Amino acid sequence: MPFLRRRKGKSPNSEPAPIDDDSETEKEHEPGQKQTARRRRNPNPNRWSCFANCCWLIGVICSIWWFLLFLLNAMPASFPQYVTEAITGPLSDPPGVKLRKEGLTAKHPVVFVPGIVTGGLELWEGHNCADGLFRKRLWGGTFGELYKRPLCWVEHMSLDNETGLDPSGIRVRPVSGLVAADYFAPGYFVWAVLIANLARIGYEEKTMYMASYDWRLSFQNTEVRDQTLSRIKSNIELMVATNGGNKVVVLPHSMGVLYFLHFMKWVEAPAPMGGGGGSDWCAKHIKAVMNIGGPFLGVPKAVAGLFSIEARDIAVARAFAPGVLDKDVFGLQTLQHMMRMTRTWDSTMSMLPKGGDTIWGGLDWSPEGNCHCNAKKGKNNDTNNAGPYGVNYGRIISFGKDVAETHSSKIERIDFRDAVKGNLLANATQCDVWTEYHEIGVGGVKAVSDYKIYTAGSILDLLHFVAPKLMARGDAHFSYGIADNLDDPKYEHYKYWSNPLETRLPNAPDMEIYSMYGVGIPTERAYVYKLTPTAECYIPFQIDTSAEGGSDNPCLKDGVYSSDGDETVPVLSAGFMCAKGWRGKTRFNPSGIRTYLREYDHAPPANLLEGRGTQSGAHVDIMGNFALIEDVLRVAAGATGEELGGDKVHSDIFKWSERINLDL
Amino acid sequence: MAASILRFRKLCYVQHVIQFETPNIENKDEGVKTPKFENELVEKQRSKNKNQNKRQPREWRCIHNCCWIIGFMCTTWWLLLFLYHTLPPAMTGFQVPESPGTRLRREGISPLHPVVMVPGIVTGGLELWEGRPCAEGLFRKRLWGGSFSEIFKRPLCLLEHLSLHNETGLDPPGIRVRAVPGLAAADYFAPGYFVWAVLIKNLAKIGYEGKNMHMAAYDWRLSFQNTEIRDQALSRLKSKIELMYATNGYKKVVVVPHSMGVIYFLHFMKWVESPPPMGGGGGPGWCATHIKAIMNIGPAFLGVPKAVSNIFSAEGKDVAYIRAMAPGVLDSKILGLQTFEHVMRVFRTWDSLISLLPKGGDAIWGNLDWSPEDGHICDLTKKGHLHSNAGDTNYNNSNGNRVFQVKEPMKYGRIISFGKETSQLPSSELPSHNLKELLQIGSPTNFNSSCGDVWTEYDEVSRESIGKIAEKKAYTVQTLFDLLRFVAPKMMQRAEAHFSHGIADNLDNPKYDHYKYWSNPLETKLPVALDMEIYCLSGVGLPTERSYIYKMSPSDKCKSIPFRIDSSADGETGSCLKSGAYFVDGDDTVPVLSAGFMCAKGWKGRTRFNPSGIATYIREYRHKPPVSLLEGRGTESGAHVDIMGNVALIEDILRVAAGATGAHIGGDRIYSDIMRMSERINLQL
């Protein structure tokens, strides 16, 4: 604060010396004064003690902070918008406002089905360490508790390793209502933008319903434990009844897509296992299912998630800072803990790739063919990439980059299935974190890496080998195959209900199914793995982030082969069913429900002020995509797929679907 | 903290001296001589500081000092906060008593019946779904409940959004304010001020969770039937109860309504069994199949006198008191608005308030000379600790009460009297009132109504007629309605299409099939449900408003409400009259009479209001104020809202929810005079 000090010192000066007419004297005067000031300070340097200085500093910061906060609060609400408009030019109206001017009003009730991870979970009963967290969010919100008591948090978020239900003494339940998934964390919207736009054309709580469920559980278990499916059924019936018989429009997102497939089978199945709604329940109650970013056939990310709990982002972090994630931060081995936790979540298994090699490609073949990952440019010069065999997406896991790129006939593979699970690692008992890898032993780990290449079909065997308990639970709830004969009575079991390749769509000719997803973002499709150097208490495999494709193979980056998609779900998984599997009257779609593909090309936000963008195609950010919102609003207000404009395709999904040889 | 303030003072003082001194020196010496003088100065300074203090805070200017103080306080605050958070809860020295949930869980009690909670008026949150430009950025934010920060930021905007349409009693055009759904609707009214949260927590302790607990939130501003018309709230509640019944192994639900929720649920029970166009079409056995028990908390079955003063002059006791103390604050135009008139205008658009007006007329509430509470001992010193002033404490209450009882008989029947004397005169001396006449004389003359931007219906009532209304008159419940019809014709017109406040002569009359009678226990029959149980759980031991003394508002300004509670009317020490209101026993809001009568007499056994003989139980909870500040709002409170944290009440609810019957939990438990009062009421059963 030199300015203040000087001014105060000066004012008494000028009074007794008004004759100072020159600027020179003024100039002489000033340094002199500064000197005196300095000297005055010198003799007693302790005058401003450290403590006082700190207090002073904090005081200044606090005051400024409060002042700014006050200004922020006093600021008119339209100010940020004004600034944005000044910089980027006038914003286009949000779709809700635009369509309201067109005269659209609420017609069909809307049901949201959130996906994995985005729904909030709250604590209803916990151990002592979770004192005071009753009905507070453990998942979603600020995640404050994760930092305060990480071990406690992990313990409460885990499910029982054998039943896949609550561990004893712990009850964590989904948040209910629209608040369950409107924002994932403060400021990070999921459904909020869509809700706000729906409200603009007249929707409100009574015509919108968030079908929140505990996304950690397998789908049938949500009914067993919480009767979630019954609640959804009852709520849809209520909404149809109280809104003059208008059928509902369902908007599932991400894993919610599979969940709702399961629901549609459940609700029409007879009572003990199903909901007993009768065979025309869907026809009577559902106008359209608008799947947003739906992983119908699973996502490769789930493989990496289960196999070594890393997706690309974590893998990079792990390579850069091995000390942070691998070492004992806060006395815990983060990754191992996370792995143990996520392995108790049955739902992650619903997202494993379905349809085996037929869909996802074999050793030397994949529907996507060559690399397309330079999203925008790729379409023009797609043969540019080198390598005698192109990129082989079919090999979802390969051990080593060279293995990934060699032709299958030249690779020696040793079958791991019969490998003896070696004796336990020497000091496995010292690892306080239990992961199933300890039980495989060194031999097992080696056997796994010796097999070298895993396709979608053999991935399942691999997971059975490395995580037998998890897969045992998973097999009871999910299935990943392709049905030969859908009339086989075994397909009445609930474990097939979430697999579109093993169930029929309900008999509802007036229903419409939309597949809406973003394209133009490189999406994880296959991985290059390596063995972890230290094999003690760590997860023995990790993504080989050093594997780079370089300029001749831009699809390989940080050990991950990417293809087109929305960053999480590859186009193949999101679009295939609507493009081919269900198109027209097929054996999976006996009543010929109309299907529409709506793709949204990704355009990153122009500047920071736009936040997450209004034209994004990313998996979650797409929920703020104006074009998608407009489509949803129009359908909710009564439009059909034809009126929207039918298919809107940017990717090569039709070409790829052609290549898949599936009996329809 | 005190030390630091002391230091601050010293600094300021010293600083002045220095400021005075330094310029002198600086003027004299420039350049060469400085060191010498500097030394001198330093020495001077030192010697002075030796006298005063060891420190030399020469350069502390005022701003620095302020900053220092703020910083110091912040640091201390953070430090304390940090300590508070790191301390285990047991270390704070306050032993938290074991909650009833934990205790009952150890006894082996587990959830059996699903629980439905029906919140009362005011306690439920309301959020904005569509609003005017002034409410930008408030989409899906709470307008009511929560922190109420918007009230301070944009009061007029908020009031505009909370009002309903004056004629339809529904949304004004362009505004949609809706009830918050879910348990969050009424668990806390404001941060830290629990309503249902304690009960929810205790239910959760014995194993309840989202799937077997439901908060039947509704827009409490609307008339009950309108909640169905606009939001289908009743249909939702029906579907929810049916769902919970089905998914919990066909166990009937236990309903826990509070305050106005009690009459809302009465309405629901009639609605659900009525045939479709007007009702829910559940059929005559619906309640019998789906409901095990109704545990009414602080039930306002027969209305509350507080509603009268709210509608008449927008003041309850507390507000009236403030108004008398600081007339400048509330009556003058703060921020350019006339608080009361605005609030009143908003109140008057809320139909639900009318449902709380006293029901049953003079037969229940007493006439000019008689009331069922006659002989009530008003022991404000013992019970009304909150309202007792210093004089009361010295008062010898053992003799006094008797004396006053004789000297000053309370005429509770006169629910509004103008002037203290009027409230005590024998009825023969009162002028007979003829409002019917008034209605003809004082037809709207548009008295100065252009003079205010605030519209209250009083503007349309001429001064002369207001004078006539007030002239030494007393009103009983029956004549009160005539009065209200006169001063607020539009509101009463709307309201009387939705509510009725009489006593039925013949319940079989087909007119009682109309929904406007459904929320009045004296004009409906309970459903036929032999196994059902009805509980009346209420607090007693708090003085509760029962009737009012009014006066004309002194100011003749055109825009003010012409009546106000005469808060100067105090009885002698120990009487029931205080600040212009007569008090009886109750829970601070609902008098015992209203809460208990139906369970004590109206529905007891097989009566014409209760044809199937549903069992009724009265459970009263005597108010005990919290012992220390640490207890917050107390665990044995009997106050209208605080009773939701009463451990005895929670235990009763938990036991019933876990399957116990009324007889198991001990049947009636009565502290008040409700039985005697009910005796005196002459109602054909």
UniProtKB/TrEMBL annotation, chain A:
Domain of life: Eukaryota
TM helices/strands, residue ranges: 48-72
Basic residues bias: start-end ranges: 1-10
Record keyword Transmembrane helix present: yes
UniProt topology in membrane: Single-pass membrane protein
Coiled coil: none
A molecular function (GO) term: O-acyltransferase activity
CC terms in the record's Gene Ontology section: membrane
Stretches the record annotates as Disordered: 1-42
A Pfam family of this chain: LCAT
Enzyme class: transferase
Record's catalysed reaction(s): a glycerophospholipid + a 1,2-diacyl-sn-glycerol = a monoacylglycerophospholipid + a triacyl-sn-glycerol
Record's keyword annotation contains Nucleotide-binding: no
Any one of the GO BP annotations: triglyceride biosynthetic process
UniProt KW keywords: Acyltransferase, Membrane, Transferase, Transmembrane, Transmembrane helix
Location in or out of the cell: Membrane
EC annotation from Swiss-Prot or TrEMBL: 2.3.1.158
Family: Belongs to the AB hydrolase superfamily. Lipase family.
Protein name: phospholipid:diacylglycerol acyltransferase
Source species of the chain: Rubus argutus
From TrEMBL, chain B:
Gene Ontology CC annotation, any one: membrane
Its membrane topology: Single-pass membrane protein
Keyword Membrane: yes
Transmembrane parts of this sequence: 62-84
Entry EC number(s): 2.3.1.158
Protein localization: Membrane
Chief localisation class: membrane
Protein name as annotated: phospholipid:diacylglycerol acyltransferase
Taxonomic path: Eukaryota, Viridiplantae, Streptophyta, Embryophyta, Tracheophyta
